[in-house]
Design brief:
By secondary structure, this protein is an all-alpha fold. It has one domain: Orthogonal Bundle (Helix Hairpins). 94% of the residues lie in helices and 0% in strands. The longest helix has 136 residues, at 83-218. The radius of gyration is 54 Å and the shape is rod-shaped. The relative contact order is 0.07.
Length: 219
């Protein structure tokens, strides 16, 4: 597994390069985050294994400390009655103390490495959340931009349709005006005809009145 300290540098570099890439940015970002997620999972497994190793070292230490107490008690027991056994116990004590010293050193190194790994994991997991949020934000911006572009294209298309309706409206208005003009002209002709008939009647009446008047004068 790659060192955890290099994970963030690799992923951040990939993110910084996304802006200048021609490929599908979202797919590249998702692939980078997926790889980072796998590395984090691997680091978590490693951390748990280190914790189990520490627990095992603690158990070994407890057993050795128990053995140390036992050999010390024996050494004291045989110090007066059996010097050879007492010295044998002392050799065992020295070996156990050496084992305990080595065990303590190993435990200290392992705990230090586990603490360092835990710190790195905490930092990387926090950055992973930030990058995931950044991915979602970029997705939202990308969709909003796409919708805006679509809206502009739709507006252009709508304007084109409006132009068609406007031309159609002008054509209909022209027909309506022409029809109204023809109707008015027909009405004017009929009205003129009525006026002519009325005028003719008036003239005929006036003619009869004139004739009647002349006849009266002659008589």
């Amino acid at each position: 597994m790659r060192p955890v300290s290099r994970i963030m540098a690799t992923i951040t570099a990939q993110f910084d390069q996304l802006v200048n890439q021609i490929e599908n940015h979202e797919a590249v970002a998702e692939a980078s985050l997926r790889q980072l997620r796998q590395d984090i999972s691997g680091a978590r497994v490693q951390y748990k294994m280190m914790q189990k190793d520490i627990e095992s070292l603690v158990s070994q230490q407890q057993r050795l400390e128990k053995d140390l107490s036992t050999w010390q008690a024996r050494a004291v027991q045989y110090s007066e009655t059996d010097k050879e056994k007492a010295l044998h116990c002392m050799r065992k004590i020295k070996l156990v103390e050496k084992d305990l010293e080595q065990l303590a050193e190993r435990q200290s190194q392992l705990e230090e490495a586990a603490d360092k790994l835990q710190s790195q994991l905490t930092r990387v997991e926090s950055q992973y959340k930030d990058l995931s949020a950044k991915l979602q934000a970029f997705r939202g911006r990308d969709k909003a931009a796409a919708m805006a572009t679509s809206a502009m294209e739709q507006a252009d298309y709508t304007d084109s349709i409006d132009d068609v309706f406007n031309r159609w409206d002008r054509k209909i208005l022209y027909k309506e005006v022409s029809t109204d003009f023809d109707s008015d002209q027909i009405v004017d002709e009929i009205e003129q005809e009525f006026k002519t008939e009325e005028e003719l009647k008036d003239l005929e009446m006036s003619l009869r009145q004139l004739v009647d008047a002349k006849t009266t004068d002659s008589n």
